[in-house]
Structures are given as structure tokens and as C-alpha cells.
Amino acid sequence: MKLMTPPELEAALRDIGARRYHRLHPFHELLHGGQCSKGQVQAWALNRYYYQATIPAKDASLIARCDDAATRREWRSRLVDHDGEREGEGGIARWLKLTDGLGLDRDYVMSLRGLLPATRFAVEAYVHFVREKTLLEAIASSLTELFSPQIISERIDGMLKSYKFVTAETLAYFSQRPPLAERDSRFALDYVKRHARTPGEQQQVLAALVFKCDVLWAMLDALYHAYVAPGQIPPGAFIPED
Amino acid sequence: MKLMTPPELEAALRDIGARRYHRLHPFHELLHGGQCSKGQVQAWALNRYYYQATIPAKDASLIARCDDAATRREWRSRLVDHDGEREGEGGIARWLKLTDGLGLDRDYVMSLRGLLPATRFAVEAYVHFVREKTLLEAIASSLTELFSPQIISERIDGMLKSYKFVTAETLAYFSQRPPLAERDSRFALDYVKRHARTPGEQQQVLAALVFKCDVLWAMLDALYHAYVAPGQIPPGAFIPED
Questions:
Q1: Nearest CA to A100 among A173, A32, A155, A35?
Q2: If one looks up domain B12-227 in CATH, what number appears?
């Protein structure tokens, strides 16, 4: 292992995204290509809700481990983005507008009763990773945001065009995200480029991004298995009406 | 919620097993019915290795939280069963005889490089559950052992009959397990029947068993998705030769 320059490290990170980010997953092709049934879109939104709702706890764990006020302050903006300034605002509330718009009962969504266990395990793996690994690795694991503006624009275009049951209003979550994701990922990328100073630390940073790509990928694998093919829904999970 | 008698609690636990234990999973039907390719059996053994190898850490976490020497002593026998008295003995070593017998490279298996991320997330969810929930819930989550003697006998019979690449020697792990599982599950069942003294505690015990069934089920869902149908192997995971 040799020490990479910061631009080389960035290139290696972007290469991981190009090969492993969930934009490449077959479920996303179906979702964005308009080939999902309403029930499949519901299952996706219901499961992804748990990810959205858990992100602030993940971010708070990260802040809790940080001994530098500037980094804590910067990271705090993520809490604001997700939880909002007051009831009904923020990313989680906007996600619930999506599940509302898809006809899912809000109490049912928030109860997590219909969640795929694999979703729960993947999301909690992310929380535990951030809690237990080094701060550098915790920050690096957020770097999937580098690749999200592209997937979000594809998603908005594809879903609005293809699904009568989806409106611009229900997709408000996504229209708000790209500038926030760009700001956040710029900070995190700059942080890892400055703080990964040994070959070992650089490898940890790369592995953290691979881990996070695996989390997102595993969530879509589970959706595909349960709701597309072979369509084996695990005991207790959400059963679409269609 | 009303308080169940101990026999009613036991019946409710057995009912969960009858509905949610992974013996009912389609992957097990294929595996025991002789319908798996060698590569699919390899993928199963490789992924399940991580579960086996992680169990002693799970059990040690449980012992670490126990303030009663008798319970610690009883639970310690699980460490002995899995780790053995010396190198080459115990359940993990016997599991590696299975992966050896299936033609997998031992270093590759132990490196975990080919693991499905979903396997890792499910197994680690179990470890975290035992570490973070109450001792009662931690003990209750082991109760899938109540149902394992039956699955193991089906597995030995079905695999020996169906697969030329499987021998009684490579299945040594399974021939040793049933009496140990019976002893362990008898202790754990007796423990939860004695210690779950409120309706709330009884519901926690039931939920812990549901959780553990979900862990085992999710592991097979991931195998099925990657190696049976649609056969979408996640980036980086084991690729069978056949």
C-alpha cells in the first residue's frame, strides 16, 4: 500500500461509486424506468422510510464523538435538514408526504411493522458502524452522498413521467435534497482528504465507502427478493394490495 | 395483554417457531431436497460460517451481562461447544471441515471476503441485540435452538442422500449438535418461563424469538436472491465456479 495524493484518494472513492453505488441496482432500473407496480413503489418507500428516520440518530452519534466544534457545527446542519425546525418540516416529514401520496397509512409506516427485517439489519449496521469505527471512517461512510444528485434527478424525472400515482408534491423530498447533498458531501470529502494521512487510513476510508454502498445495495436486494422476483415476502412484512 | 402461565408462554414460543423458523424457507427446501448445485451449497456454507464464527462473541456478551454465577457457568458450555478445548476442536472447526469438504479455500472462507453483506448485517444485528437488550431478551433470542434438532436431522439425511460432494465426515458439525441444542434450549426455555413474570416481559420474550427467526430467515433470503433466483450476486461477494 502506498500513500495516495488527495486527488488520487478522491479518484479512488469516485471509482467505488461508479462500480458499487445502488444506482446500478436492478431495482432502481425498474423504479426509475416506470416498471414498478404501485405496491412495489409503496414497499420501496415504506422500507426507505426507516433509513430516513434513522439518519439523524446516526448523525447525532457522529457529532457525539467529535471533539472539534467546527466539525460538530457543520455536521449539525444534517440534523436540521432531516428533523426540521418544527413539526412537519425537514426530510423525514417530506418522506412521509411521499408515503402519504402513495396511499400508505402514516401510522403503519411509522410503526415499522411492515419493514423487511433485512432493511432493519442494514440500516442498523450503518448506525453501529458510525458509533463503533473511527471518526474518519464514520465521516467517510457518508460519502455515498457524492453520487446522490445524479440518482435523484433520474428518480424525479423517471417517476413523474411513469407513475400516475406520483406527483411533484409527493416527490418534494428529492427536489430539496441535491444542494444539501452537495454541500454535505463536499465537506466530508474535504475532511477525508485532509485527515487520511497514512496508507492504512486511506484504505479505511475506501472500505467505509464500500461498506456504505453495501448497505444501500442490500436494502434493494431485499426489496427485489420480496417484491419483484421471486417475490418471497418474509413473514410479517408489508403485503401490497396489488 | 394478560399474563400467560409458563406452559402458555412455551406454547406461544413454539407457535412462533412453527410459523417463522427458517426450516420453512424455500432455500432450505432446495438444500435438503438435493436441488442445490455445488456452488449454491458452497455459498450457503461460506455465509453460514460467519454466523458460526460469531456465536461465541454473542455468547460471551451475554455472559458478560450476567450477575449470577450459575447462569454464567451454564452459558459457558456454549463457548466450549463452539471454540473447543484446543485448536481444531469445537463447532467452528467442524464447520470448517464442511467448507473444506465442499472444496472452499479455508483462508478465503475465514477472510469473510466473499460474504454477502446481508449475512454480515443479519449476524451483527444478532450480536447487537444480545449486547443491548435485557438479559431476558438476550436469552430468549437463543430459543431458535428449540427447533434445530428437527432441521438438522432433515439436513443430514437430505444432504447425504442427494449430494455426492457431501460425506458423513464433512457433516460432523450437524451430527454433534442435536444433544447440545437440546440441553441449551431446555435451559433457556426454563429460564424465560421462570423470569418473564409480567405480560410486558412475556411479550419481550416472544418478540426476541421473532427477531431471531427474522435473522435466520434474512440470511436465507439473501442466499436465495444472490444464488438461486434471480441470481443477482452483490458486488464483491462469492461467485461459484459452476
A1: A173
A2: 1.20.910.10
Considering chain B, what percentage of its residues have pLDDT values greater than 90?
A: 96
| CATH class given for the domain over A6-227 | mainly alpha
Kindly tell me the burial class for residue A215, based on how many C-beta atoms sit within 10 Å of its own C-beta (0-12, 13-18, 19 or more).
Answer: buried
Nearest to B221 by CA among A56, A14, A232: A232
Closest CA relative to residue A45, chosen from A177, A155, A143, A128: A155
Point out the residue among A117, A214, A217 whose CB comes nearest to the CB of B218: A117
Q: Where are the domains of chain B?
A: 12-227
Cβ B87 vs Cβ B19: under 8 Å: no
Nearest to A124 among B128, B225, B226 (CB): B128
Cell of residue A54, nine digits: 434513522
Mutate to test the interface with A, among B30, B131, B220, B221 (most CBs of A within 10 A): B221
- Contacts A120 to B, Cβ<8 Å: 125, 214
| pLDDT tens-digit series, residues A20-62 | 999 999 999 999 999 999 999 999 999 999 999 999 999 999 9
Task: Dig out the grid coordinates for B206 from the structure.
Answer: 416472544
- Name the region of B233 (left: φ>0; alpha: ψ -120 to 50; beta: rest): beta
Q: How far apart are CA A77 and CA A118, in angstroms?
A: 29
pTM here is 0.94
